# Entry
Amino acid sequence: MGWCDDTQSKKYNQEISFPFRYRAEKLFKENSFYDIFINIKYNQSPIKKGKGSAIFLHLTNKKYKPTHGCIAILKKDLLKILPHINKKTKISIT
# Structure
């Protein structure tokens, strides 16, 4: 599974399967940062090419390295907030 971030693709800013002919981010990584993640659904309705691809809330480690546009928190903290999130939850980035 992956996420297309290539504006040349009709699948831009959508979930895709590999192999895939356009640029896309793999959502299964050895570092386990995507073991648990939430798609914040940025630029989803409608999708506008060039406005930016997905923003995920995903895991990080204690080093808190910068992401490429996502929000990353420790697993223990994500597990605390998960029970309070449902389909109606809105995550606002300010």
Summary: The chain has a mean pLDDT of 90.
